[in-house]
Amino acid sequence: MKARGFTLVEVLVTMVIFAIIGIASFQVLDQMVSTKEQSEKGTAQLERLQYLMLVLDRDFQQMVAKPVRLSSGELAQNYVSNDSAMVESDSGGVAFVRSGYQNPGAILPRGELQPVIYRVRDKVLQRVSFPYVNDRSREPNVRQLIDGVKSLRFRFYVRAGDSNENLGVSSGWRNDWNLPEKLPAAVEMVLELEDYGEIRRVWLVAGGVANATEQSE
């Protein structure tokens, strides 16, 4: 008895079945790889966001009463500024001076007060810092904190005792800060990210004054 071979139709059907299985397997593998990449990207972005909050908390909780110097070199009378000439941001920002930048024995070529600017450039939130308060001749340190920024806004809370009728400033929240030689009672940040939407944070400002050695920087 002769052995019966496969017909052309049977061969074609078998090839089609294997092709379908191959395509399905590839799609499953591709989906797994894509899911893994998205998960890793999301985890990395979340870690950057957590680090950003740590940096922000550290800076705003150590804000001190010290005039900031404009990029033009002019010393402003405000301790805090969100003026566009100062922050040079694509979407909101703030500039102030923080303490707690320890330098025992002046070992490092910098002061113990640190001028800080938060700004947005090309959808990236940047932290710009300078080694000295009153010297802008040195190159600043620019750190890229998080990308995918849609907008950045700050508001400042005026204490009841700090209201100023001459400047038209009453107590409560303000979108800008123009009270000379005063610190706000609190600072609110609204950061809008492409991945997480709006993130709102409020810091109470202690209002510490720089000590005598720091004032000379």
Automatic annotation (TrEMBL):
Ranges annotated as spanning the membrane: 7-29
Biological process, per Gene Ontology: protein secretion by the type II secretion system
This protein's UniProt keywords: Cell inner membrane, Cell membrane, Membrane, Methylation, Transmembrane, Transmembrane helix
Methyltransferase recorded as keyword: no
Pfam families reported in the protein's UniProt record: N_methyl (PF07963), T2SSJ (PF11612)
Main location: membrane
InterPro entries xref list: N_methyl_site, Pilin-like, T2SS_protein-GspJ, T2SS_protein_J
Membrane-topology annotation of the record: Single-pass membrane protein
Gene3D superfamilies per UniProt: GSPII I/J protein-like, gspk-gspi-gspj complex like domains
Domain of life: Bacteria
GO CC terms in record: plasma membrane; type II protein secretion system complex
Subcellular location: Cell inner membrane
NCBIfam families documented for this protein: gspJ (TIGR01711), IV_pilin_GFxxxE (TIGR02532)
Listed PANTHER family: TYPE II SECRETION SYSTEM PROTEIN J, TYPE II SECRETION SYSTEM PROTEIN J-RELATED
Family: Belongs to the GSP J family.
Name this protein carries in UniProt: Type II secretion system protein J
Organism: Idiomarina tyrosinivorans
Upper lineage: Bacteria, Pseudomonadati, Pseudomonadota, Gammaproteobacteria, Alteromonadales
